[in-house]
Amino acid sequence: MATIEKLIQLIMAGTNDRNIKFKDLQKILEVLGFQCRIKGDHFIYWKEGIDEIINIQPAGNMAKPYQVKQIRNIILKYQMEV
Questions:
Q1: CA nearest 59: which of 70, 43, 45?
Q2: pLDDT above 70 coverage of the chain, percent
Protein backbone atom coordinates (compact mmCIF):
# COMPACT_ATOMS: atom_id res chain seq x y z
CA MET A 1 0.00 0.00 0.00
CA ALA A 2 1.22 3.47 -0.84
CA THR A 3 1.75 6.16 1.79
CA ILE A 4 -1.21 8.32 2.75
CA GLU A 5 0.38 11.45 1.25
CA LYS A 6 0.97 9.73 -2.09
CA LEU A 7 -2.57 8.37 -2.12
CA ILE A 8 -4.04 11.80 -1.46
CA GLN A 9 -1.91 13.24 -4.28
CA LEU A 10 -3.09 10.51 -6.67
CA ILE A 11 -6.73 11.06 -5.79
CA MET A 12 -6.54 14.83 -5.93
CA ALA A 13 -4.65 14.82 -9.27
CA GLY A 14 -7.64 13.17 -10.95
CA THR A 15 -5.50 11.62 -13.69
CA ASN A 16 -5.28 8.08 -12.33
CA ASP A 17 -8.79 7.28 -11.05
CA ARG A 18 -8.75 3.84 -12.69
CA ASN A 19 -5.59 2.80 -10.82
CA ILE A 20 -6.64 3.39 -7.20
CA LYS A 21 -6.93 0.21 -5.15
CA PHE A 22 -10.15 -0.23 -3.19
CA LYS A 23 -8.34 -0.87 0.11
CA ASP A 24 -6.34 2.35 -0.42
CA LEU A 25 -9.54 4.32 -0.94
CA GLN A 26 -10.93 2.82 2.26
CA LYS A 27 -7.76 3.78 4.14
CA ILE A 28 -8.07 7.41 2.97
CA LEU A 29 -11.66 7.57 4.21
CA GLU A 30 -10.64 6.12 7.58
CA VAL A 31 -7.77 8.61 7.93
CA LEU A 32 -10.17 11.45 7.12
CA GLY A 33 -12.35 10.34 10.04
CA PHE A 34 -15.22 8.61 8.25
CA GLN A 35 -17.06 5.76 9.94
CA CYS A 36 -18.06 2.65 8.00
CA ARG A 37 -20.79 0.08 7.96
CA ILE A 38 -20.93 -2.81 5.54
CA LYS A 39 -24.04 -4.17 3.88
CA GLY A 40 -23.17 -6.94 1.43
CA ASP A 41 -20.45 -5.59 -0.84
CA HIS A 42 -21.48 -1.98 -0.15
CA PHE A 43 -19.22 -0.02 2.16
CA ILE A 44 -21.16 2.97 3.47
CA TYR A 45 -19.13 5.83 4.94
CA TRP A 46 -20.39 8.84 6.85
CA LYS A 47 -18.96 11.59 9.00
CA GLU A 48 -20.54 14.13 11.30
CA GLY A 49 -20.61 17.52 9.63
CA ILE A 50 -20.57 16.03 6.11
CA ASP A 51 -23.96 16.02 4.38
CA GLU A 52 -23.07 13.35 1.81
CA ILE A 53 -23.04 9.63 2.50
CA ILE A 54 -20.39 7.75 0.52
CA ASN A 55 -21.38 4.34 -0.80
CA ILE A 56 -18.52 2.46 -2.47
CA GLN A 57 -18.17 -1.05 -3.86
CA PRO A 58 -15.04 -2.79 -5.11
CA ALA A 59 -14.49 -3.69 -8.76
CA GLY A 60 -12.23 -6.67 -8.15
CA ASN A 61 -9.48 -5.18 -5.98
CA MET A 62 -9.76 -1.73 -7.58
CA ALA A 63 -11.97 1.25 -6.77
CA LYS A 64 -14.47 2.40 -9.37
CA PRO A 65 -13.28 5.61 -11.06
CA TYR A 66 -16.55 7.50 -10.51
CA GLN A 67 -16.35 6.74 -6.78
CA VAL A 68 -12.79 8.09 -6.60
CA LYS A 69 -14.09 11.28 -8.26
CA GLN A 70 -16.96 11.45 -5.78
CA ILE A 71 -14.53 11.28 -2.86
CA ARG A 72 -12.22 13.86 -4.46
CA ASN A 73 -15.18 16.26 -4.81
CA ILE A 74 -16.14 15.79 -1.14
CA ILE A 75 -12.53 16.43 -0.03
CA LEU A 76 -12.51 19.63 -2.08
CA LYS A 77 -15.99 20.77 -1.02
CA TYR A 78 -15.26 20.43 2.69
CA GLN A 79 -11.56 21.39 2.40
CA MET A 80 -10.52 18.24 4.26
CA GLU A 81 -6.91 17.57 5.16
CA VAL A 82 -5.11 14.50 6.46
A1: 43
A2: 98
